[in-house]
Amino acid sequence: MTIAVYGAGGIGCYVGGRLAATGTAVTLIGRQRLAGEIAAHGLHLTDYLGADLRVSPSEVRYETTPTGAAEADLVLVTVKSAATATAAEELAAVLKPNAVVVSFQNGLHNGDVLRERLKDQAIVTGMVPFNVLSRGNGAFHQGTEGGLDIEKHPDLDAYADAFERAGLPLTQHAEILPVQWAKVLLNLNNPINALSDLPLRDELAQRAYRKCLAAAQAEALELLAAAGIPPAQLMAIPPHWLPGLLRLPDFIFRRLASKMLAIDPLARTSMWEDLQAGRRTEIDYLNGEVVRLAESLGRTAPVNQSLVELIREAESGERRAWSGRELLAALS
């Protein structure tokens, strides 16, 4: 059983690294920058529960060309959503016909993009519910709770033990779209966190920022109801309760939230990391999905549209740390 991780950045190195650290043969495939970093330092994988795993440089196979996936039985695709079509073309040239390909990406339609090009492989849609912070020198930290959610498929049974051993159990779902939308609802916070320039826990500790997220989620939930799409319940409370919870005073929110979702002080969103690195973000595949849903219904999504526009401005170099009050006023 050989697993390849295609697009091994933060999420890919963390998931693939935990598999490698617990005895599974894994090939990571990604950029030369990370290849050099891991060749020098290996992998250091930690999480909010205190896990501390290391894989030495000699034990990490990190490739920089698609041929690294040629012998893989299972391929985990973790590239940014905008790169999915390119990844599909590259993989089509090298994959075995019977390989299983899993999309562990943000957004809703990456599995469909892979399926259009990879006709001879089994394509499965998955979802990573937790945040991973790249700390440099091969260190990756899982800052929020969760395992891995994935579309139910019989070919996955052979891999269940490996993921369980790695501390990332696969939860299989008969329908994955409600699960994806539930993740999108949580990820509507990504631009808010990126614009705040604060760690995730510090941002969510402030009611003004939470009101921004509540407005984005309430808008999305109204549109989902109109479209007849009920998001899955990934947390201790139903999704439609989230906006009300987020609007609560700080001292009440802290008491309730601590029982729902574990977040440690290191947690940051990938969108914050992308802005820090000067990379294009995945805003089109998060809040942009809400905007497209609204358009499909002949409606608008002004809160989420505004967040898309603010992140686009930040990508172009107009970056600053927004206070919660400033951001809430801009979205009102």
Structure notes:
This protein has helices at 10-21, 32-41, 84-92, 110-117, 160-165, 177-187, 190-196, 200-204, 207-227, 242-246, 250-257, 270-277, 287-296, 302-315, 324-331, and strands spanning 2-6, 25-29, 43-47, 52-55, 61-63, 74-77, 100-104, 122-127, 132-136, 139-142, 148-151, 170-173. The strands form 2 sheets. It has an 8-stranded mixed β-sheet with strand order 5-2-1-6-7-8-11-12, sandwiched between helices. Strands 4-3-10-9 form a 4-stranded mixed β-sheet. It is an alpha/beta fold and 332 residues long. Helix 3 packs parallel to helix 4, helix 7 (190-196) packs across helix 14 and helix 9 (207-227) packs parallel to helix 13. It folds into 2 domains: 2-174, NAD(P)-binding Rossmann-like Domain (Rossmann fold, 3-Layer(aba) Sandwich); 179-331, N-(1-d-carboxylethyl)-l-norvaline Dehydrogenase, domain 2, CATH 1.10.1040.10. It is built from 15 helices and 12 strands. The mean pLDDT is 94.
Structural topology:
Layout: E1 2-6, H1 10-21, E2 25-29, H2 32-41, E3 43-47, E4 52-55, E5 61-63, E6 74-77, H3 84-92, E7 100-104, H4 110-117, E8 122-127, E9 132-136, E10 139-142, E11 148-151, H5 160-165, E12 170-173, H6 177-187, H7 190-196, H8 200-204, H9 207-227, H10 242-246, H11 250-257, H12 270-277, H13 287-296, H14 302-315, H15 324-331
Parallel strand pairs: 1-2, 1-6, 2-5, 3-10, 6-7, 7-8, 11-12
Antiparallel strand pairs: 3-4, 8-11, 9-10
Helix pairs in contact: 3-4, 7-12, 7-14, 9-13, 9-15, 13-14
